[in-house]
Write a structure and sequence with these properties.
By secondary structure, the protein is of the alpha/beta class. It has 27 helices and 27 strands.
Length: about 775
Amino acid sequence: MVMDEKNKYVDLPFIPLIGQTFFPGTTVSFDIGREKSLNAINQAANGDKLFVVATQIDDKINNPDVDDCYKVGVLIRSKQIIKKSSEYVRVLATCEKRVDLENIRIENDIFICDCNVRPDLLADDEIETKALARIAKKSFSKHIDLVGNSDNSIKEMINKIDDITLLCNTMAGEIKVSYEAKQELLEQDLVYKRLEKVIQFLNDENQILMLEKRISAKVMGNLNQSQREYFLKEQIKVIKDELGETEDVDDEANEWLATMEGLNLPEKIKEKIEKEITKFTRMHQSSPESTVTRTYIETILSLPWNTASKINVNIKKADKILNEDHYGLEQVKERILEYLAVVHLSKNIKGPIICLVGPPGVGKTSIAKSIARATNREFARMSLGGVRDEAEIRGHRRTYIGSIPGRVINNIKEVGTNNPLFLFDEVDKIGSEFKGDPASALLEVLDPEQNKTFVDNYLEVPFDLSKVMFITTANTTETIPSPLLDRMEVIEISGYIEDEKLKIAENYLIPKKIAEHGIKKNRLTFSESAVRDIINDYTRESGVRNLEREIANICRKVAKQIVMDGKKTQHITARSLDGYLGKKKFRSDIVGDDNKVGVTTGMAWTRVGGTILFIEALKVAGSGKVVLTGQMGDVMKESAQAGISYLRSIADEYGIKAEVFQECDIHIHIPEGATPKDGPSAGVTMCTALLSAITGKEVINGIAMTGEITIRGKVLPVGGIKEKVLAAHRAGITKILIPRENEADLEEIPKTVRKQIKFVLIDEAKDVFEEALVK
């Protein structure tokens, strides 16, 4: 569409209407089924949504030509297009301006036209115009009362309209007269003349309605109940035929009622649906409210109230499926098998609510899909990352056109069963704002005692979610609200070790990527050493996401060689990796090759897994100041001060002169200064680095440590041992010092890692000095 001037439009899609005339300022709903009209509405929907409609002169012509329509129409903007069947669509639109049609033509099987905006001319006498408006409002109010419409919203809407043009157009659209009469109104430029004609139509219709009432009252007195019902039904049929309503509302309502009876619903829900169906049958089918009610009824009847998947309770079969899809994750698999065993013994068990917590790329989302397959449940997923609107969970209230259920109910409707596996992904990244707190809305969904009667704002009736198996995923539990976390069974998934990554690559990732890239199995192979080098030199992560990317990178390059150079087979070795992936991204000797003074290796926990960090300490001439750098948090700074105080208290035992602390400045630094760091677990690491710097004793290479220190030198337990140890193992650490009270945490560490690392349990800081410093 092109708008040449302010009141000129060219190349607009054009749709001829049968027996309908619209007016500017109103919202309309109408059906389109003819091929040219469907093409026109599609072109408008793909553009700025503007198109023109005009009424056919003869409503019996099914395939109109360019000269078969009135030349005064309405410029319309579409709001919603609903596909009702394969043959027609329903359009909801707002009418904007009266227009004169020019140059109607057919291009690419679409009616196209140009048009000029037709102005509304107001009278000079404002008092006379106001008087006409008042008369019109009274006549319309009387008309509504005679029609017997109990809904006062239309009268209230008309009474609130002050604009004379909008008032005239709104009433013209509501009155029941022939389309020829309405076209006469549309073509009238003088608004007061148009309003006079509307008043005339209203008064004529009111006279007819009053006469009908008197006649009906006399006739109905002589009819028994059955005759009365027959008479009313026949009247309704005749009225619908006169209005051109081809859709049989009663048949549709009867079909809905039959569907409802087959669902075996509770009485309260049946009453609610019956009430909505009754209201729908009394509405005018072109009104916006009719569309809203129809969508509501169809939505509520399409829900799987009593449709459920048959849960697989064959534990051996489930175990086989889980192992086919994933290597490791034993704790998760064990929990699912336990649940299936309980289902086998007790049929009324509620679905578990599990939260899988771990770093990115360890398979949290994919294991949820495997669990759905293993338990024979449908799979539904909702990502909560960045969700800030409570309506995403609970749905929108039916106060406006376009309202829909929340994504919980919508996903259950789409999968078609009331017991799917529902995955809430990234539950730790949920947000909140003035639109509500989605985390609070999830409390009802994830509470086994409440979700049996979950009420979506759109449905307004309870739906049973207790049979749903909910699984959530997160990288950390720190940002999950406590009430929400309390409702979930947390299973922590740690990062993979090198051997586990090797198995995953060989058994899952490499075959998957080779197949995705269209390479035959025997045309691309990887040596074990090549895979290990990819793991250690090109990816250093807790999961396998980057490993999968690097394997895909190799597959793309091999595919190019096969196509361009005609290579039949390719074997990837450690030596040939540089040609595919470039230079190594990580150094294997990350912990250093020799002993150093004042440098120790610590271990830290992050939201994406464990990591190692180096702590550097330096003694320089000064005035006894303590300098702490590297973006340390308050807790970490206090740990450093505690370590310094402890060293001053034992200075004599290590031959440190008291003057050192007055005549020298002490500087403790943690590299990667752009990254914030906090927590007490680096206490012993900083204390050891400081002692090394003051005494000049070297720190033995290949040793990492963690633990909180007190001012008396006692080493207290810390968290995240498993993640920290796995990170140290990836970095080549061979000896780790941990607090004795963390001994139980060593059981969670894979046996292969425990065999390669020597663990020393420490009670006091002196134990650390004894193990870490060169004698």
